[in-house]
Every structure is written in structure tokens, then in C-alpha cells.
Amino acid sequence: MPSHFHVRISALLLSAGMMAALPLNAQTHRRRKVSKPVGQTWTAKPTAYGLGDNDISTGDDATIRAAAVHALGDLNGTAVVVDPNTGRVLTMVNQSLALSADYQPCSTTKMAVALAALDHGVVNENTPVRIAAHWSVNLTQALAYSINAYFEALGEKMGFATVTGYERQLGLGEKAGWNIPGEDPGSVPDEPGPGGVAKLSSFGEGVRISPLQLAAITAAIANGGTLYYLQYPTTPQQIQDFEPRIKRTLPIAAFTPEVKDGMLAAVQYGTAKLARLRDEEILGKTGTCSRDGTRYGLFASYLGNPNPKLVVVVVLRGNRAVFGPRAAQVAGEIYRSLDAEHFFLAANTQARTIANNQ
Question: The CATH number of the domain where 218 resides is what?
């Protein structure tokens, strides 16, 4: 990334949701009337106890669950880990939260909007989109820094029906799991909310999503377009009998490389850099937003490019201490714990063995 772009980014005032504000010259700054921010009353706390007391984890991968449980600690949130090549849920920590669709996707919705815009020919990876008088960015930069104005512009070009139609195609508004008890299908709005298609496209206004759904979408991006039913075996027999179930094949293979570049940039130097792992490539997208006294921090990610190995989704709830980069940090701790256990080295060896036997 050229140094002048980092200078430009540092000149912007970034809100907690990473929305880029317009740079002000000195004369404008002197004349601008500064208004005092309205105080936010937070009713949710960033920590909680006993959230996983009723989890059924008998079918989990023990190493992965231990890493996720340790990384979450007493945080008020959930972690879902999925095999992107089969749709098997390898662990689901604090399952009541993972299956609930009482979340707004926040800026993780930008992944879907980017795919829709690429599919409809609105932009390509290098198309500059003007978001200020003398400043334009491309898709990679917009995903890396989660620039709301860029995705608002894309949403307004495509329109409400196109954006929501694409979100439904990706699996929103329907259950992601196959016979997983207690799963909430969430919903996609039938008409624009107060912020119109712009706010729908920048942080998912009006959408209700579950962490499980977010994991399914991330897996489909990781593997190039196969949207699996997520299955959660809970007994040795179910694990033995496991077979992948494809919900549908999405026509996104031609566009995922361009979205992946932005997701990789987010982890390498953008909003998700706290998830970085030295020897493995992690790709992801953060999200931050607030509703009804609760602040949400989301991170949807996967490890392994071009051969994905693991999807990790972390969703946190609480007060101003909660935001997307904090969720990325938790996911990073999961990845680092597994790396310390040589989990990915074993996965690489297994993949090579399978390839050699084919």
C-alpha cells in the first residue's frame, strides 16, 4: 500500500464504525461549528457469566473448542468455527447467542454488497469511487478500512431490491443450519428503513442475522461459492455418518478473488490487523454498530488462501469497549492458539496426502 494513502487515511476522522469523514482544510476547520456529541446510555455489559452452561459440545473438535473457550473467556459473545469445505460446525461456543438472529450484520454486510456490485458490473476491484471532493478509493481500500461512504454509493447505484435480493441469495432470512435446534432464521427487510438503501449497504440497517448465518456466508466466499447447510454433529455416530449437504451453488466464483483481496488487506493493515498470524494468511471483515443500548462487535474470517481451512466468526456484545477490531483480536487469539498446537501444519499435511492419493 503506497505511503501516501496511509497519510490520507490518517487525515480522516474515523468513527467507531470506521466511517470516513471528509478531510477539512484549515480554513474550513476554523469556521466549522463543533456540536457536542449526544451521550449514549449503555445497558449491556461486555462481560457475562454462564453463557455456555447449556452448550452441547460432545461432537466438537476438542482442540478448537478449547481455543475458542479460552479466547472468549467471560466476554459477552460467541464464537462459531466451521469447516468451509464441508459445512461442518467444529465448535459453537455460547450456543444460545450463536443461534440467535438478534444481531445487525454491521459492516460485515459490506462483503455481500461488494459481491453484488461486482456481479452487476457496478464496479471492478480497481474502479475508483469518489467519496469526498478530492478523494476516491477502490474496493480493496474500502474493505480494508471499512469505508461506509463507498458502500453507500454502491447501494444507491444498485437499489434496494438488488441489494436485498442478493442478501437473500446468500442465505439471509433463512436457516443456515440443517436440523440445528433453536436456530433463528433472521430476516431481510421488505422496504427501506430510515437510512434507506445507503445504510442497508454500509452496515446492514434492518437486517437480522445470526452468527451461524455469518459463518455460512463466509464459508461460501472462502470456498468460491458453495453455500453449505451447516451441520453440527453431537455424537460419535453423527460424526461418523457426516456427509456435506449443499444448499445451493452461488455464482460468485469470478468475483470472490476481488473481495478476498479486500478481506486480506483488512487483516494485513486495516481494521482487522489484530487478527494477524505470522505464518498463515487470514482474511476477514470487521463490523461495529449499536442498537437499543447494546454495542456489537463482529468479525467474520477464514484462514487459508487459496485453500481455506477454517472459518472463524466472533460476535461480541456490550458497551463502548466492544467493537469490530476487538472481535478480530479474539479470533486472532483462536487462530494463534491453534497454530501453537500445530493444528494448521497437520491440516496442510492431511490436504497434501489427500491430493497425492487422488
Answer: 3.40.710.10
Contact indicator for 228, 222 with CB cutoff of 8 Å? no
- List of E strands, the chain: 77-82, 89-93, 129-132, 135-137, 226-228, 246-249, 282-291, 294-303, 310-318
* Cis before 306 (ω within 30): yes
Q: Indicate the pTM of the whole model.
A: 0.88
Q: What is the pLDDT of residue 279?
A: 87
**173 and 187 in contact (C-beta within 8 Å)?**
yes
Domain membership of residue 247 (yes or no) is yes
CA distances 219 to 115, 170, 282, Å, are 14, 11, 13
Query: In whole angstroms, what separates CA 144 from the centre of its chain?
Result: 12
The torsion angles phi and psi of 147, rounded to 5 degrees, stand at -85, 105
User: What pLDDT was estimated at residue 40?
Assistant: 77
Q: What is the rounded radius of gyration, in angstroms, for the C-alpha atoms of the chain?
A: 20
What range does the domain containing 244 cover? 42-357
Is residue 35 one of the residues assigned to a domain?
no
Cell output for 31: 469556521
Q: How many helices (H) and strands (E) does the chain have?
A: 14, 9
Tally the C-alpha atoms within 13 A of residue 296's C-alpha that lie toward its C-beta.
26
> Is residue 236's pLDDT more than 80?
yes
- pLDDT tens-digit profile of 200-221? 999 999 999 999 999 999 999 9
Predicted confidence (pLDDT) at residue 35 exceeds the cutoff of 80: no
Cα–Cα distance, 9 to 70 (Å, whole number): 34
The backbone region for 295, taken as left when phi is positive above 0, alpha when psi lies in -120 to 50, beta otherwise, is: beta
pLDDT tens digits along 162-199: 999 999 999 999 999 999 999 999 999 999 999 999 99
Q: Which three cell numbers stand for residue 140?
A: 480493496
Structurally, the chain folds into a number of domains equal to 1
**pLDDT mean over 253-277:** 98
d(CA 112, CA 97): 22
